[in-house]
Please model this.
Amino acid sequence: MCSYYELSIYNILNGLNSETPVPINNIYKFIKARHAQNFVTGLSILKVIQSLDKYGIVEQKEKGYLISQSGIEWRKELSEIVPVS
Model:
């Protein structure tokens, strides 16, 4: 069973790609749509993204965020424990 935190990270990573930076507002919208039953604040999403950036899972660019190669690998591992909805 996966935790709420793992599900949030998975959804953040799922909303990113490795070629085109995704603006933070688009990430917020993507997460809000996925967590309709749960209240997720923009601030908590930003803190998670900043932590992922600190550890090299995502990379901040001028126009948004990209997922790194290690982020792609982590997303694949998380996909094995996150329930598909």
User: Anything to note?
Assistant: The helical segments are 4-14, 24-34, 42-54, 69-79. The first strand starts at residue 58 and ends at 61. The CA atoms of residues 8 and 37 lie 13 Å apart.
